[in-house]
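Before the break, one more example. Copy the sequence into your notebook; we will annotate it together after we see the structure.
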Amino acid sequence: MDYKDFGLVNTKKIFADAIARHYAVPAFNFYNMETLSAIIAAARDTHSPVILAVSESALKYMGDDLLRGMIWGLNLHDRDAVTLHLDHGSSFEACVHAIEIGFSSVMIDGSKLPFDANVNLARTVAEYAHKYDVSTEAELGILAGIEDETTHSTTSSYTNPDDVVNFVNATGIDSLAIAIGTSHGAYKRKSDDEELRFDILDAIAKQLPDFPLVLHGASSIPQHFVQTINEYGGKMTNARGIAPEQLRRATQKNICKINVDSDSRLAFTAGVRETLATKPENFNPRDYLGLGRKNIYDNCVDEIKNIMGSDNKI
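Here is what the structure looks like once it is written out:
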């Protein structure tokens, strides 16, 4: 199915505009109707382009037909600047499947492979995707942390600036995810003093002027959600994210897509825990899921305005 039938867009124009105007397009992961509706409402109300990110495990959870039904239900037009993106595709076959069911952008993650194998895999995906005008993202460098079944690593390695030109030219990809100190999950830093490797980002941006760069594992882990979760029975000791001011700084150096997943998980969980704990008589899912949805909406609006700088960019 052609993604244009859904009113979706690929990332080429929105990334070009983001680089030119020094903002980042938010890539928010979703998993169900509540998370999707919160994200799209936040994007519409702030007039921001948005990337709806779906991992392989989330796609398996929702199912192809239900996912496509929800995207149809958004009644999108290309002027809404909404991209449907496969996050961390683990294989050529996974990317092909996403394209076949209507995704407008795919990421192939061969970051754990040797350099040449990563190049070959990314090139194969890009060549296939471009036949259908679908954008392709690949990753160079490894992020530590755990996000889901297909996104986890106990080790990390920074992106080597000396490799990026060869990688981009050899693969034909449309955007490059880099490793400069972010990580997956809710435990990104051991202390509040840790900073991203802006020296590496500067070197990469000089090697690839005007080329779209992507930051994965970039949730800020809002502490008020962590505190709410812990107050109502959760256990998230020492959860720390990337400082918003560092993420905003990154958008000035060709970071035109910032991935956010853990923040939405925290927001949703905080709302559900709070409602069930403070209203124990309540057994209506619309009520306790409703606060979770509102939390995601509020957080997406905040990050669009104060981190991404993508508000009013449509």
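The CA atoms of residues 182 and 242 lie 7 Å apart. The two ends are 26 Å apart (CA to CA). Try to locate both features in your own notes.
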